C-alpha cells in the first residue's frame, strides 16, 4: 500500500535532526509523496526551537518541489490534564497539524499505567491535538483499549511509528496491540516515519507491515490520501471554532 503523506518529520530545528526543510521536500518529491508535515519538537524538548520558529513557519511555501507542506509540531504532553508545550495561539493561528506524545526530559516523567493513560486520554480530548504519536513506547505504559476508544470517540489518529522499532526498544509488542485495537474499534491510524534525516522520509515498511498484519483497512489510514488529510484537518478546524469564540 502506497501512502501519499508522511506526517511526522523533523528538521535541524529540533536540535537532533540532520536535514533542512528543502532537503526533506526534495526527497519527498523524489519518493512520490504528495504531502509532508514538518513537525519539529515542542518547546520543552532539550534543543528544541523557540516558539518564534513555529510562528515563522508561515514563511514556508505551501508547496515545495510539488509537495504540499503542512506546518506542524510534535508537542510534549505535560500533565494529567493533557496540556502540551505549545501556546494555544500558535496552535490555532499558525499551525496546520499538532502531534502530541510522551518524551523523556520534558517535564512529564514515566508514571504508572493509570496516570499515563489519564494524561494521554486528556491529550486526545485537547481540541488542538490531531495525532497521538508513538503511544507504544514502553517507557510510558498505558491502557491500549482505553486510549484507542478515546481516539475513536474524538476522531483523533493513533500513530504507528516506524522509527519506534529502532529507537524505542520493546515497542514491537505494544505497537502490535495498538494496531489490533485500532482494527477492532475501526479507529483512525497514521503511519509515519518520524524521520530525523531526509533519507528516512516516507520510510514506513515496518509500521505498514504491522498495520497489514492486524487487518487495518486503507480507509482507516489517515495518510493514505492527501485529500483525506485535508478533509480531516478541515473538520477539526470547524470543531475548534466554538472554543476560540468562547475565549
From TrEMBL:
Coiled coil: none annotated. GO terms for biological process: bacterial-type flagellum-dependent swarming motility. Residues 5-79 form the Polymerase/histidinol phosphatase N-terminal domain. One of its GO terms (cellular component) is cytosol. SUPFAM superfamilies: PHP domain-like. NCBIfam families: PRK09248.1. PANTHER family: PHOSPHATASE YCDX-RELATED (PTHR36928:SF1). This is Phosphatase. Pfam families: PHP (PF02811). One of its GO terms (molecular function) is zinc ion binding. InterPro entries: PHP_dom, PHP_phosphatase, Pol/His_phosphatase_N, Pol/histidinol_Pase-like. It comes from the Bacteria.
